[in-house]
Amino acid sequence: MSEADDCLFCKIIAGQIPSSKVYEDDTTYAFNDINPKAKVHVLIVPKRHYANVAELAAADPAELAHIVEIAQRIADERFHGAFRLVFNTGLYAGQTVFHVHAHVLTGEVLDE
Asked: Strand order in 84-86's β-sheet?
């Protein structure tokens, strides 16, 4: 079994696990975080499985740029264009699902 076969986010993308979809296109899926850390907390994931943002950047920099564009679109729609974009990379940085995902935090003024 590959990592992708047992990946929570791959199962969400495939529709095997329900999610609250915010955005979807041919390469990317975004959904509301089930444990939000801000008024708006959306996860953006590439449909293709990459373990972390460094792996994504090396393999498909255009998809990484696309994720940033989607983050901006979400922030434009939900909070005047302001947002925080976070990628946790590695267990000791707080990554708990090893399918790269961007946390878009917005919807309110955020503390530093």
From this structure: 21-24, 28-32, 40-46, 102-106, 84-86
Rounded distance, CA 87 to CA 45, Å? 11
Q: Please state the pTM of the whole predicted model.
A: 0.93
Active centre residues (catalytic) = 101
Number of residues written out for the chain: 112
3-state SS class at 72 = helix
For the chain, the domains span 8-106
Q: What is the full per-residue pLDDT of the chain (112 aa) written as tens digits? A: 356 678 999 999 999 999 999 999 999 999 999 999 999 999 999 999 999 999 999 999 999 999 999 999 999 999 999 999 999 999 999 999 999 999 999 988 888 7
What is the CATH number that goes with domain 8-106? 3.30.428.10
